Amino acid sequence: MLTFVPDPVLLGSPRGREWPVLPGGRPAPGGNPPRTADVVVVGAGPAGLAVASALWHHGIHDVVLVDRSGRPCHRFFGRVDLLGQRVLRSPYEHHPGVEGYRDCELLDFARLHWGLLTPVERREIRMAQAGHRSVVPVDVFDAYCGHLASSHHVAEKTWRGVVREILPAADAVTVRTDRFGVTARCVVLCLGEERRDAPEHWWGGGFPPPSVSYWDQKLPAYGERLVVVGAGLTAAHLIGGGLAAGKQVHWVIRETGERYQCADVNSTFFRPEGRARFDGVDWDDRLDLLRRYRHASIMFEFRPELARAEAEGRLVVHRGEAITKVAPGAGGTAVLRMEGGGRVTGDHVVLALGTTPSIGTGLLPGELVGERDGWPELDGRTMAYARAPRVFAVGAAAGMVLGPAARNIDGHRVATARVAAAVAASVRHGAGRAEFAPAPGRAVARV
């Protein structure tokens, strides 16, 4: 079996190029959205963009997207740029475009804009056309998402709001935010993933000590010694940024060594036969597969630079020891106390401890989520919550249905195909019925 090992030069793809844009695609007008809609999509990241685009192809246009930023994919690319990330782990065949319809796919979009691509990026296009694994520049993916948002009229349906609660009733679902409420026939949750917080015993819980932050927070420019905690791709980007800034970087890994690969999980899980491994097996077997095939890893492109930096002493790697405590140190530093008795001190410590799927807990009533081992109870055919059949999930929350691929962009597209068909059927079935009313208070009908 051949292993795909791309050239490190890919990590330097340009960011911020000007791409041709379709006319229209204006953001939603000020104020609040309509009080009722056919569908509400919670979250306008790549998964939400995929769902809204698919519904457009199904002829469902009365859609409201609710997102904390108010713009499609804004938070996704904000996190990417915070890390200085220039390429995605996903190949060209993984994108939020609509499956099963004549639509512009990511590879089509890149080829249409050939003149904007670098020679290295063009080589990746040729590899993708030949059926080989290739790497997508963030800039291309960003422009493609903008194209989808414009061509499927997603931007003008996206409203800023922080969702506080979701209340299913017998024939509708009400979504309440910090600014407005919308009642719809169906709701699709595209919540993504949230950062994993540090264990409580590291400093007693709550906010981190001074000079300690998480990966999704802006990194201060001060200090010469940077400490990065975590074994995944996010940590690698932080380390690369620190080295490029001339900092002395210490890397703390609980495992005994780094894991380099080009996908978070075995690539077979992204194919239908791989996803079929989850069909017909019991819950415990699925959990076991998720544990074995979801490991923190780093793209192959990073290995030469990180190995060179370690050999030169610019990078010090602390392997195979767990952290027992994080505490303030002298002169505004932070100190990590290790299981073996050692200490690592830095002017700033950044924690990249991974992410956890958002499954609707805290938004839906707990009994409707049906949480078990961190996963919701979903209908595998429609991705609907088994106890709230008008509420659907796309993204990481579908992990126990689609397997590890659910947390990947292509997994979003697979889930979207099922959800969009089910939602469209539900909306058409309810067409012509009397106007539905918002759910009163917190009373929730069992559905």
What is the topology?
Layout: E1 36-42, H1 46-57, E2 63-67, H2 74-82, E3 87-88, H3 106-112, H4 119-129, E4 136-137, H5 138-151, E5 158-160, E6 163-168, E7 173-177, E8 181-189, E9 193-195, E10 212-214, E11 225-229, H6 233-244, E12 248-253, H7 272-275, H8 283-293, H9 303-311, E13 315-319, E14 323-328, E15 334-338, E16 343-346, E17 348-351, E18 355-357, H10 366-369, E19 384-385, E20 388-393, H11 399-402, H12 409-430
Parallel strand pairs: 1-2, 1-8, 2-5, 8-20, 10-17, 11-12, 11-17, 12-13
Antiparallel strand pairs: 3-4, 6-7, 7-8, 9-18, 14-15, 15-16, 19-20
Provide the helix percentage. Answer: 25-40%
Question: If you compute it from the alpha carbons, what radius of gyration comes out, rounded to the nearest whole angstrom?
Answer: 23 Å
Mean pLDDT across the residues is 89
Number of helical runs?
A: 12
Span of the ends, CA to CA:
49 Å
Number of domains: 2
Strand content: 15-25%
What is the fold named in CATH at topology level of the largest domain? FAD/NAD(P)-binding domain
The beta-strand count equals: 20
Largest sheet properties? 8 strands, mixed
Name the CATH class of the largest domain: Alpha Beta
Give the overall shape: globular
CATH superfamily grouping of the largest domain = FAD/NAD(P)-binding domain
